[in-house]
UniProtKB/TrEMBL annotation, chains A, B:
InterPro entries: Gfo/Idh/MocA-like_OxRdtase_N, GFO_IDH_MocA-like_dom, NAD(P)-bd_dom_sf. One of its GO terms (molecular function) is nucleotide binding. Gene3D superfamilies: Dihydrodipicolinate Reductase, domain 2, NAD(P)-binding Rossmann-like Domain. PANTHER family: GFO_IDH_MOCA-LIKE OXIDOREDUCTASE N-TERMINAL DOMAIN-CONTAINING PROTEIN (PTHR46368:SF19), PTHR46368. This is Gfo/Idh/MocA-like oxidoreductase N-terminal domain-containing protein. Residues 7-126 form the Gfo/Idh/MocA-like oxidoreductase N-terminal domain. Belongs to the Gfo/Idh/MocA family. The lineage of its organism: Eukaryota, Viridiplantae, Streptophyta, Embryophyta, Tracheophyta. SUPFAM superfamilies: Glyceraldehyde-3-phosphate dehydrogenase-like, C-terminal domain, NAD(P)-binding Rossmann-fold domains. Pfam families: GFO_IDH_MocA, GFO_IDH_MocA_C3.
Amino acid sequence: MAESSPVRFGILGCANIARKVSRAITLAPNATISAVGSRSIEKATVYAKENGYPSTTKIYSSYEAVLDDPKVDSVYIPLPTSLHVKWAVLAAQKKKHVLLEKPVALNVKELDVILEECESNGLQYMDATMWMHHPRTAKMKEFLSDSQRFGQLKSVHSTFAYLGDKEFLENNICVKSDLDALGALGDAGWYSIRAILWTTDYELPKTVTALRDPEFNEAGVILSCGASLSWKDGRVATFYCSFLANVAMDFVASGSKGNLRVHDFVVPFKENAAPFYTVEDLWFGELAKSIHPAPSEQQVNTDLPQEALMVAEFSNLVGSIKGEGSKPEKKWPTISRKTQLVVDAVKASIEKGFEPVEIIY
Amino acid sequence: MAESSPVRFGILGCANIARKVSRAITLAPNATISAVGSRSIEKATVYAKENGYPSTTKIYSSYEAVLDDPKVDSVYIPLPTSLHVKWAVLAAQKKKHVLLEKPVALNVKELDVILEECESNGLQYMDATMWMHHPRTAKMKEFLSDSQRFGQLKSVHSTFAYLGDKEFLENNICVKSDLDALGALGDAGWYSIRAILWTTDYELPKTVTALRDPEFNEAGVILSCGASLSWKDGRVATFYCSFLANVAMDFVASGSKGNLRVHDFVVPFKENAAPFYTVEDLWFGELAKSIHPAPSEQQVNTDLPQEALMVAEFSNLVGSIKGEGSKPEKKWPTISRKTQLVVDAVKASIEKGFEPVEIIY
């Protein structure tokens, strides 16, 4: 495959979230949609049309058929979490690179099966955590890494929440114990946990302790929860995730010299420009009557939305593997696995009555 | 004493924080400074001059002499915390109303001695938590109380921190085990705990669990710590307080319908106008490519700084007691005690190896 050929995606299923990623594949300069599979050909046909798939897109009546198509390089898997291990492993066995929707697995044991299959087949794996690919994320990281401006990391707090309506709380796959058993921890907490680990350059905490009194639905699926993470050196992180609160996508980091705040870290207020707020050496004015300076806003523009940048980055890596025989980029499976380890630890802490759980990597 | 006569304050000691409150007494229309006491007459004379005390101010060489002055109605006590119980009790015995700097006591047992002495003498007690008196605080409360705009409270997070320099960390009374043994928990955590309780209309949490791995100095005084609070109904709060991080005065509340954020809740960026940020019914745009609306800023102006409004409110209450025989306002001792109860619980949880501590009111 020539470097200039776009990476050809097969889409497994007609999930709502796949609409956004389908558009992103269309927008990414190095990717194209070549197939979609659904148990209903009719549904997939309508879906392909509604989402502007190329007229050449193959419509299959099964996921297997997508995986068997030799003109598919990569699959995007937006299926319910409980189905990830089956279909991601099968995709890897069929030599398809895997872009996997989050939460990536019900636990790290399942994820390891997926990652091992991808690795042994020389395939790229990436989880679909879109905000990682926004240029704002790199700009924020520059600030956090600046020992003069931010200093030493001391604390992080993140909230990711959205308010499920009656229909969502009764019927959405995110609250079904047989489909997305991790509930709000997997769907919302994933983002906060990733953000916290991103802040520590993926240094895992020593212990994770769930906050007391999460909320559950009747089937025992988490609707809201939180946790504290500690690194045994004074750094602390806390997060709250919920299907029962107004949309919040907050991330606040306190360093010894500066602070960083962002209020839309997962999905920005605007597609083409995203803000974050920094302040350095904040101190008290005369008689401590006021504090100075006020935080300043930094806007980071982007021509392509973050989800298209994610597809472009994934496709770059796939293109290098196919075109130049490169090795898969290990960063992506590594940080996905670390995120899952913390998700698992929060769940374990809840199950153990909010006892601290040590993270073993 | 006629209603229109200003309340006459005696100041115990020449603490730095007393400069700010001295100015506030001067600014408040219903208060005046009538005496100051210090072990050094010379120091107090210079201090009175530097801080623009009225020329009629009595300069005493002891705190006792201030308490014995019949022309002193009220005392402001900015002494180290370990001295509060002695001097606040003595002040109350001498029939002086008490404006007490925070942290108010080393523990609730000590505070109860103070509160009982004030109550049995029919005196007003108030802790010097200035931000409570900013008109912004009332405006924020309006939003939080609005079931249509904010809905049901789900989570709160607060950070209060400032970076102590070498001199502070070695010599400030805030890090001395014999003076302010509560360290960062008393000096900084106090504000976050008060803010959390303010959010719940002072409904105490059922349990308080300290975050693991606080930082201590060699004398065992807390330099940074945090805690999670839970109400057994899904509401959670977390806070982080520190002498080891850049100034942060954050308060973020998530409701089922709205969010509130403020980044300078203890001391505003500007003396005469303070912002807060609200957003209601935040939701995803088409294909979840963005979220709408962005938070909106509300500016609350004030002619008098919050510390002068605190003095004015305290003096109003004292004036009513003296002029009209009113009873002291119980709100202030009540919320001070509740704040202390949570401070005590955090400390107990740290001492018990981060076990949850039940709050018994």
